[in-house]
Amino acid sequence: MKKKIKGLIITLVVLISLTVIGLIGAGMYFYNVAVVPSHKSFLSNEQVKPDSPLYEGTKWYQQVKKIKWTQESVGDHLKLVANYIPADHKTNKTVVIAHGYMGNKEKMAPYAYIFHQLGYNVLTPDDRGQGQSQGDYVGYGWPDRLDYIKWMNRVIKYNGKDSKIVMFGVSMGGATTMMVSGEKSVPHQVKAFIEDCGYTSVADEINYEAGQLYHMPSFPKWPLVPILSGITHLRAGYSMYEASSLNQVNKNHRPMLFIHGGKDTFVPTKMVYPLYNATKGPKELLVVKNATHAASYQTDPKLYVKTIKQFLNQYFK
């Protein structure tokens, strides 16, 4: 009897050990998929076609004169790179634009063009580990939020203390924008935020994508996502659970415009509503009918630009 119990205990310990080893191995795999910068098969890399609403802005960005700015990241001592494009006429209005997951400053060209046409100076940074910036991890906006505040202070130093700044971002950049909004160190010169299809938190998005991309049930999604978050904390210095746009907008009192596609299945449309409800400042919400993820501008460019222009006119005189 004792031998049988001992055998069962040994078998149980072996099974638990193998399960733990398997989950840690899976966590490392998903860390490489989700956090390490590399080509991602689930992301579209289609070229912008001449008949696309994005084409004019993309061509403009390629040809316009840009000033290269660099700075060191807040922590990790990484060299970060950005392009600064002054407005055609001298102004104290500047937009700071945050790009999406595995994106870069060039991919934000159509949005940079929108704000340039509205008379703003434009700053388009590359986040850690993406574009020309150094780093071996994607921060999903969380460590990056402090870098963006540093970029804002750089804008103020360059353009003067009477600067007026709006931050704008799409997808991960939208989440980054919201994450910035909750920080006490945001300069008073930042007058408003515009986020397009950002997620409620990194953990929420990873949980959602585990189901969407890998059809993963509740187990092993839990405890795999916490393990992935733990690995990310050890290797990249942040937790996916602390990286919460929802918690950050709950501390925001500045004006914010929320934009989301009505048919977004990558960052599901339902995520925008708790975010909109949480912010404490003046707010507006635009849900673009029939727009998929990060496609609100392409779907209805006139409405998109009109909404941004009317929103900003209230705070940028």
Low-confidence stretches: none
Tell me the series of helices and strands, N- to C-terminal: HHEEEHEHEHEHHHEHEHH
The spatial strand order of the largest sheet comes to 1-2-4-3-5-6-7-8
- Total number of beta strands: 8
- Please give the count of helices: 11
Alpha-carbon distance between the two ends: 84 Å
For the largest beta-sheet, the strand count, sense and barrel status come to: 8 strands, mixed
Mean pLDDT across every amino acid position: 93
What is the C-alpha radius of gyration, as a whole number of Å?
21 Å
Structural class: alpha/beta
Give the helix level as a range of percent.
Answer: 40-55%
Strand fraction band?
15-25%
Envelope shape: elongated
Secondary-structure blueprint:
Elements: H1 2-34, H2 55-63, E1 67-72, E2 79-85, E3 93-98, H3 109-117, E4 121-125, H4 142-159, E5 164-170, H5 172-181, E6 190-196, H6 202-214, H7 218-236, H8 245-249, E7 256-261, H9 272-278, E8 283-288, H10 296-299, H11 301-313
Helix pairs in contact: 1-7, 2-3, 4-5, 6-7
Which tags fit this structure?
single chain, alpha/beta, elongated
How would you describe this protein?
The protein is of the alpha/beta class and 317 residues long. The chain has helices at 2-34, 55-63, 109-117, 142-159, 172-181, 202-214, 218-236, 245-249, 272-278, 296-299, 301-313, and strands at residues 67-72, 79-85, 93-98, 121-125, 164-170, 190-196, 256-261, 283-288. The chain is 44% helix and 16% strand. α2 (55-63) packs across α3 and α4 packs across α5 (172-181). The relative contact order is 0.12.
